[in-house]
Specification:
alpha/beta; Quinone Oxidoreductase, Chain A, domain 1; Rossmann fold; 6-stranded parallel beta sheet
Length: about 325
């Protein structure tokens, strides 16, 4: 028996609670992992609270991130004792995830824990930091350099935003952070933001083209915010779109793309090929300093996971939430 958060949906309704589980709950896979830490991302919070159509199979253990030690393996890729991590691939949606002390997984989804990162640090990074790194790599591959100009990061107080700022600043970029919580300005500047702007300047309907400012941007907001970001991006600039906190719609025009040559780069973190994942995680291990993990992460016990998910939906959580599934 082991402990985990279990989401159930039946005649009694939709509910998530910490329970004693056994191996019959686990999904199919060729590797069994003894989980050390998981996280609570926005998607996890939607799954746990039932506020979004995330979970598509019941009962299910949520948790799109996990790190742990291989307990048993039916593949040559991994052996007992290996430390591995996982993000996405439908885990926590259709396949039991990381918010339990044990997980059975497909070995093709697993990434070796990079040298230089502890298990806790890997989950401080989690899907949020991994997505941020993919976004920065997209800017780099499209030719955006620190000399190109300012980089805008929207949703700056969230996990993706926090890591985007830290990574970009460490690489020498000038970062402008957009947030709806100006009281967190000191925190954002401690991560490396050189300027803070209010999200209201971007979140309302705007013009097809605005004054050119950003050489690049990382947007986790979508909707009017993304449209306005594109409209104010410099000629030849790049916008990495990785989220939809404001909405899934994109109420803009083609003007930035055909008149200024702006590139809109979509960032998918769920089904990303393993080679891209390994590149991103190795870069994260090289770039980020231990102090960053302390600044952006809070550790909670498994028993607090359900209530913390509600707090995250209510906008009361800053940065990353690490779940110690064994406490």
């Amino acid at each position: 028996m082991f402990k985990g958060v279990l989401i159930e949906k039946d005649e009694q309704g939709y509910r998530a609670e910490v329970k004693e589980l056994d191996d019959t709950v686990l999904s199919d896979g060729d590797v069994v992992v003894s989980v050390s830490y998981s996280t609570i991302n926005y998607k996890d919070a939607l799954a746990i609270t039932g506020k979004g159509l995330v979970v598509r199979k019941f009962p299910l253990v949520p948790g799109i991130d996990l790190v742990g030690t291989v307990e048993s393996s039916d593949t040559d890729r991994f052996k007992a004792g290996d430390q591995v991590l996982l993000n996405g691939f439908g885990v926590g949606e259709v396949h039991c995830g990381g918010l339990a002390q044990k997980a059975r997984l497909n070995s093709d989804w697993l990434v070796p824990l990079p040298t230089g990162l502890t298990a806790k640090q890997a989950m401080a990074i989690g899907t949020a930091g991994y997505t941020a790194m993919l976004s920065v790599i997209a800017l780099e591959k499209h030719g955006v350099t620190p000399e190109s100009g300012e980089i805008l990061v929207t949703g700056a107080n969230g996990g993706v935003g926090s890591f985007s700022i830290a990574i970009l600043a460490k690489l020498g970029y000038t970062v402008v952070a957009s947030t709806g919580r100006p009281e967190e300005s000191d925190y954002l500047k401690s991560l490396g933001a050189s300027e803070i702007i209010d999200r209201s300047s971007l979140s309302e309907p705007g013009r097809p083209l605005a004054k050119e400012r950003w050489a690049g941007a990382i947007d986790s907001i979508g909707s009017h915010t993304l449209a306005n970001v594109c409209a104010s991006t410099q000629y030849g600039g790049v916008v990495a779109a990785c989220g939809l906190a404001q909405g899934m719609d994109l109420p803009g025009t083609v003007a930035p793309f055909i008149l200024r040559g702006v590139t809109l780069a979509g960032i998918d973190s769920v089904m990303r090929p393993i080679a891209d994942r390994v590149e991103a995680w190795n870069r994260l291990a090289e770039i980020l300093e231990p102090s960053v993990f302390e600044d952006v992460a809070n550790v909670i016990s498994l028993s607090d996971a359900v209530s913390t998910a509600s707090d995250l939906i209510a906008g009361q959580v800053r940065g990353r939430v690490i779940v110690d599934v064994n406490s």
